[in-house]
Amino acid sequence: MSKESTSFTSPFDPYVYQTLQGITGAAVVVQTTQGTVTGILKTVMPDHIVVESGGSPFFIRIQQIVWVIPR
Q1: What CATH number is given for 14-70 in this structure?
Q2: Which pLDDT score is estimated for 23?
Q3: Which of 16, 47, 52, 66 might form a disulfide with 31, Cβ 3.0–4.6 angstroms?
Q4: Quick one: which H or E segment has residue 41?
Q5: Region label for 25, one of left (φ > 0), alpha (ψ between -120 and 50) or beta (otherwise)
Q6: Among 5, 14, 7, CA closest to 47
Q7: pLDDT top residue among 3 and 22
Q8: Who wins on pLDDT, 26 or 9?
Q9: Contact predicate 46/18, CB 8 Å
Q10: Is the pLDDT of residue 28 over 80?
Q11: Which one-letter DSSP state was computed for residue 20?
């Protein structure tokens, strides 16, 4: 019996990751391919960020970010 395995890959942009890590905790405006999110940058991971806006966490894939403005 063969066992199937699943592998997930995601492009990693070390420059974006490192830059966003440097502003963790700051107020930001994030433009994504779907719209804009304004809030506090809470977490930066290699594949996504978490922005808290209005008391709710928004999980944004780094691949979907167009630009970020620290406020």
Answers
A1: 2.30.30.100
A2: 98
A3: 66
A4: strand 35-44
A5: left
A6: 14
A7: 22
A8: 26
A9: no
A10: yes
A11: H
**34-65 core/surface letters (b: 16 or more CB in 10 A; e: else):** eeebebebeebeeebbbbeeeeeebebebeeb
What pLDDT was estimated at residue 2? 64
Return the pLDDT at 34. 96
Instruction: Quote the pTM value.
Output: 0.84
Chain centroid to CA 20: 8
The residue type found at 58 is F
How many residues are there in the chain?
A: 71
**How many CB atoms neighbour CB 20 within 10 A?**
22
Average pLDDT estimate for 53-59:
98
